Amino acid sequence: MMSEDFLKRTIGVDVGLDWTNYALVDIRGTILARDRFKTFECPEMELFVSTLCEHLITFMENNGGYELVRSVGISAPNANFKTGAIEYAPNLPWKGEVPLAAMVRDRLGLACAIGNDAHTMALCEKVYGSARGLKDFIVVSIGKKGIGSCFYSQGVPHIGAEGFAGEFGHTCVVENGRECGCGKKGCLETYGSEYGCLMTAKELLEQSDEPSALRGSTLTLDVLKTCAEQGDPIAKEAFCKTAEVLGIALANYATVVDPEAIILTESMSHVGDVLMEPLKEAFERYVFHNIKNKVRIEVSVLSDEERDVLGASALAWDVKEYSLFT
Amino acid sequence: MMSEDFLKRTIGVDVGLDWTNYALVDIRGTILARDRFKTFECPEMELFVSTLCEHLITFMENNGGYELVRSVGISAPNANFKTGAIEYAPNLPWKGEVPLAAMVRDRLGLACAIGNDAHTMALCEKVYGSARGLKDFIVVSIGKKGIGSCFYSQGVPHIGAEGFAGEFGHTCVVENGRECGCGKKGCLETYGSEYGCLMTAKELLEQSDEPSALRGSTLTLDVLKTCAEQGDPIAKEAFCKTAEVLGIALANYATVVDPEAIILTESMSHVGDVLMEPLKEAFERYVFHNIKNKVRIEVSVLSDEERDVLGASALAWDVKEYSLFT
Questions:
Q1: Which terminus of chain B, N or C, has less C-beta within 10 A?
Q2: Does A160 contact B87 at a Cβ distance shorter than 8 Å?
């Protein structure tokens, strides 16, 4: 990085399933401005790239000018930092391989790096969040439907041979279990995500006649959490079952990776003790004995909202390191 | 490495549960001489170190002299390359932390590196075996009782925060399953090792009245393999069940690590098609879709006998890189 870069800014773009968020970020990770547009209003990739670039040009003009921007970092599901493309992301509207980094670079004339959302999340924790100073750690997002992850090995992100490492949500935890969007059965995210936890609560309600404050309510994570905290046995049981699945899966992950810490992000990480206490208990019960009580399990210090664009902007600072498309 | 090192040799020592093997190895990996002694004849660590050093001194004198030896590499269960010690290895006679590398260095006056048996196995495959030229790969040993592993991330072994990464055999595959020597229940090695496979065959025999050539025979891996190859349904079923457990566990491992190849070693890797065909089928059924049919599963080209001492000798060549005890 050249010295005048400290005066420059990067743009972080997070391509989410609903919204595409973008922000102007300085080198210390301060978000100077941010905006967004609806991803799903762009059913064609061409339209998405035009829309994104138009938004970014206006955004830069309104926030100090184009010449202050050093580079662009884009975080997207199934983005492959090795090829600069989004490769068959099951939940995005564009199919096949999409060379997003090269397209944005050509339109904007700015260096552009692209990263899979799990890798940019871990980078963000390393640069600005709970993994500062750590060399071996795992970041796991436990969200509404998906579970993603990325781990660092001796200070370097583990990317994998094809750029797809860390697909923790698609490890099998129940043989012939619940159907997953990926086409397989029994994937962790069908049990451990917010959706999976609510499914478990629904099944428990159907299987018993026990009175529960959940009956008659619309089942949401907030309702489930409130009921569990008030002692509702079925709500507590739903979290305990979810915690057991997550605890074993995280213990297996840690047994293979041996991290200093596991950092949790997204909706399920904010549930609190009703989930985290049985999760940590299951984790210690199943982790390899030599690392028992040595792995910290923590909720990220960053908010989910800042992490999405900050991670993408961190990618942009190291654009030469993180992308061939500079 | 200095140029005259090409004329030098290293000694590789493999501390096994039954035998301690050692060999003199040149820089190309040729085993020039080898010998061994019984590990269990040394119930005290002090006695083990004295015995080992006496053996090595005589061995060097008989094979070209002490001055030709550059360094010593030692491979042992639960050896921690970061501390140079063996740390609580459940199956070895010495308990607690044993600073083996420093003890051997002090007695012999030679630089000494120590590595966990799984890490030296992977190093051996990378330097001399099936992982030559690969950057991201997993080596998994599926032996008589234990299952070990090590993976490489971008050409570098993943060691973990405490030096204990890769304990794949102690990932949980069956909740509240078979009791494992480590104190936990349902560890992979209680189902996927040779012992686990024979247990499964025994259970299948007890659960059915079906005629089987296995009844009345002493149950060994060779007998089971011969019967399965001759079409015995219970023997085939035992391998299929074992293959399913191993296939899912390997698919989960690959889904997180995304390797170019998985290299299998030790006794179970030599069973052949009756195990490998259903194993590969289960693997492809459960691995993350983006890397389906991209991960090669191969049996190591090295013999188990040469790998043990070769891996330790490879550790000795890079002694500065692999140990603090030089």
A1: N
A2: no
